[in-house]
Design goal:
about 550 residues, alpha/beta, Rossmann fold, Phosphoglucose isomerase, C-terminal domain, 3 domains, 6-stranded mixed β-sheet, 5-stranded parallel β-sheet, globular, binds 6-O-phosphono-beta-D-fructofuranose
């Protein structure tokens, strides 16, 4: 990978000059000046995902300069480096190869002389066999009951991806009830335990490292519960625990049977792991064939990313437009609204993907950056957001670039719900782009005060000029969802490359974990604490005094 500071490139300078010219221009004028905007600034992925990015504060020139920026920063070579297994995760000395997990060409990829594609295939086979056994009621619990419930215990990437996918693909679910426990707060596991019967439940212990405190605490709590039963033998653990991990030793130490260990590997980042055995809850929930389709959708998006010229490359264009707002308009945040009830976890999944990847302040040359890196990512489900925070988008003071996502065909064609939902989707993106033009002379009988009577219209004014990308998805299926997720993965990757940061580590989250370990020891001693700052000592001592 080239380690180029983007702000010292020719393209960045050109972008800045260009920004000064168009920064105050209204989207209305962009559209007036170019009637072909929609045609020009829209793209389709296999006629299944349609992207309209015409409602952005961009012109042909903007795109040319942005694409040149990507070229100057060596994006193409970096993409090839990732797909070919170069050690691009420099700060952890690893390659980044989640794309191998969905490689339907069965192209052999080698790391240090070892064929990793073969291992992927074996792991998939194991997932297929075990899942068929469980779904088809052949797997029995320790009292002979067949399995009715699955509980995935994991956090971060070992939770968010599978949770989001199983929710999004609810219409494809089979008879198994799949639950997720992530929080260290005992209330989470407590609530799930109330819903299930241990005798007919399998717990998936999902952790790449198999050391994460939250996950191991929840896993140990469940193990203890089983062992408390007098007719439960230690050997029965194999009937109720399956491990999804890259740390075989720790899995064995926990007491999980070797045949119940489905591996994945160091070269799969936590937030990119739903395609690996971490996705086993997905396999159990929607069946192996549907999981394959999810992988296939992602694989086809990989090829689109790998082979399309930048001007037709959806993830690259999305990355560039995002850099444009974040660095030139200083927009700070980016929102994603899903107009699909089942996709209600999509934006929280994307939060980890974006913010853990690109929330970095040191560039690839060991320097503190002097520009903006990762944006703040947030969002919610469609119409509900309209009735809570959209007011701020329409009349607030912040620029908030947003992605709107909706299926053309719903899984539940009830009455006229969907056409109404679609109308709101189109209405919001239109209102955000163009705002309204009010009649200043409109008469109003409510107000007696002359000044209010004359000026009140100003409160109704929506200035517009808020950028949006519209995604029309044919239908939310395993295939289209796989492609959509991979599209965002590659967007985030492209941004990291151009912004000259390392997107595949997450050293920042370690600090809090280490301090918590130390504080736990202090709390257990129950002595007056004086080893930290006065605020932390004060809080610890207050807590101890109230216990
Ligand atoms: O704390 C951050 C993190 O390391 C994430 O990157 C990861 O997805 C999560 O914790 C869970 O880690 P593990 O799968 O090792 O339990």
């Amino acid at each position: 990978m080239k380690n180029i500071n983007p702000i010292f490139t020719k393209s960045w300078k050109k972008l800045y000059k260009h920004f000064l010219v168009i920064k105050d221009k209204h989207m209305k004028d962009f559209f007036l000046e170019d009637v072909n905007r929609f045609k020009k600034f829209s793209l389709s992925f296999k006629d299944l995902i349609f992207l309209d990015f015409s409602k952005n504060r961009i012109t042909d020139k903007t795109l040319t300069y942005l694409i040149n920026l990507a070229k100057e920063c060596g994006l193409k070579n970096s993409i090839l480096s990732m797909f070919n297994g170069k050690f691009i995760n420099v700060t952890e000395n690893k390659p980044v190869l989640h794309t191998v997990l969905r490689n339907f060409d069965k192209k052999n990829i080698f790391i240090n002389g070892k064929n990793i594609s073969k291992k992927v295939f074996q792991s998939l086979k194991k997932m297929k066999n075990i899942s068929n056994f469980i779904i088809n009621k052949k797997w029995r619990g320790y009292t002979g009951k067949y399995i009715t419930d699955i509980v995935n215990i994991g956090i971060g990437g070992s939770d968010l991806g599978p949770l989001m996918v199983t929710e999004s693909l609810t219409p494809y679910k089979n008879r198994l009830k799949v639950h997720f426990v992530s929080n260290l707060d005992g209330s989470h596991i407590f609530q799930i335990l109330k819903k299930i019967n241990l005798e007919s439940t399998i717990f998936l212990i999902s952790s790449k490292t198999f050391t994460t405190q939250e996950t191991m605490t929840n896993a140990k709590t469940v193990k203890k519960l089983f062992l408390k039963n007098s007719n439960f033998l230690k050997s029965d653990l194999s009937k109720h625990f399956i491990a999804l991990s890259a740390n075989k030793n720790k899995v064995m130490k926990f007491g999980i049977d070797k045949k119940n260990f489905i591996p994945f590997w160091d070269w799969v980042g936590g937030r990119y792991s739903l395609w690996s055995s971490i996705g086993f809850s997905i396999v159990l929930s929607i069946g192996y064939d549907n999981f394959s389709l999810l992988l296939e959708g992602a694989y086809d998006m990989d090829n689109h990313f790998l082979n399309s010229p930048f001007k037709k490359n959806i993830p690259v264009l999305l990355a560039l437009i995002s850099i444009w707002y974040n660095n030139f308009f200083k927009s700070q945040t980016e929102a994603i609204y899903t107009y699909d009830q089942y996709m209600h976890k999509f934006s929280s999944y994307l939060q980890q993907l974006y913010m853990e990847s690109n929330g970095k302040r040191i560039d690839r040359n060991f320097n503190v950056v002097s520009f903006q890196t990762g944006s703040i990512i947030w969002g919610e489900n469609g119409t509900n957001s309209q009735h809570s925070f959209f007011q701020l988008l329409h009349q607030g003071t912040k620029l908030i670039p947003s992605d709107f996502i909706i299926p053309i065909h719903t899984h539940n064609n009830i009455n006229n719900h969907h056409i109404k939902l679609i109308s709101h989707f189109f209405a919001q993106t239109k209102a955000l782009a163009f705002g309204n033009s009010l009649n200043k002379n409109s008469k109003n009988k409510i107000f007696k005060n002359k000044e209010i009577k004359k000026k009140f219209f100003i409160y109704k004014e929506c200035p517009g000029n808020q950028p949006t990308n519209s995604f029309l998805i044919d239908k939310i299926t395993p295939y289209t969802l796989g492609a959509l997720i991979a599209m965002y993965e590659h967007k985030v990757f492209s941004q990291g490359v151009i912004l000259n940061i390392f997107s595949f580590d997450q050293w920042g989250v370690e600090l809090g974990k280490n301090i918590a370990k130390d504080i736990l020891l202090t709390l257990k001693k129950k002595n007056i604490s004086n080893k930290y700052d006065c605020s932390t000592n004060g809080l610890i001592n207050f807590y101890n005094s109230k216990k």
